[in-house]
Amino acid sequence: MTAFDLLAAASASGAPTRLDPVRLFMDADIVVKIVMAGLLLASLWTWTIIVAFWLRMGTLAHEADELADRLNFLATVGSVAPFVGLFGTVWGIMNSFFQIGSQESSSLAVVAPGISEALFATAIGLFAAIPAVIAYNRFSHRVNRYESQLQRFADRLHASFSRQLEA
Prior knowledge:
With 167 residues, the protein is an all-alpha fold. It is built from 5 helices and no strands. It is rod-shaped, with a radius of gyration of 25 Å. 87% of the residues lie in helices and 0% in strands. It has one domain.
């Protein structure tokens, strides 16, 4: 049997020949779908904050306060997303064990779909958390530095006005 025959047989049997994230999502349990959708929304919002922060970092003192407020979301996603992904992982593995019990078989064909969706939920959690943590650390440092510069400017301006008023 040639490699082409093996591939044709695999496609005919319905076995996937590559990792398909959309298929993993569509075949996932409803709880795992909700976890994945929430994590994808958190990731999208994280990237929106990252881009907006980067674009707006150069404007006025008012902007620094608004930007600092948005950092809370990045911190929350960075710390919570891995655990939400882990919840999806646990649920997917529990579903695999349920399939083993209901089909009375522990073959790879029985457990592989649940394990795949479980690991995919973990990957999405990390996909949301990693940029959020990196962005939070970088941006909070920049906001702190920016606020320090503004404070030093205000102190110098106050000292200058004080000297002029005394003169």
